[in-house]
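Take a record:
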Amino acid sequence: MIEIAELLTPRGVVAQLRAANKRQALQELSRRAAALTELPERRIYDVLNERERLGTTGIGLGVAIPHGRFAELTRFQGLFARLERPIPFDAIDGQPVDLVFVLLTPLDAGGDHLTALSRISRLLRDQAICEKLRGANSADALFALLTTPTESHAA
């Protein structure tokens, strides 16, 4: 079972991301992901944007999980951001998004890529967790909420 703590580091959590729209959000998240992975910012943006063209990663209830695979990566890398204000994200329920979890995975991750996406989705479909994330006052508090295993997250 892949745990969120295996995907995320404290440096990969942003408490107040400023973005006016989906494009700006993906650009800013790509910039921050580049600092974590040493991948080129433009490459990350292009991969995430291409994935959005295939279909939105806005899963509903104010949550989006942009993701992509990279031949250069050797390990999974997550980045979580709470947006300053909800933005339109073409989510499946039509609601604006304010919680975004970016997942970057190695090209050869196989089924682990889907397992990680499923784990993130299960966590962020928990309305109690989302309310706590929306109410947290710092990146450290967000990191703790995201990485503390609870009974409700159990597979």
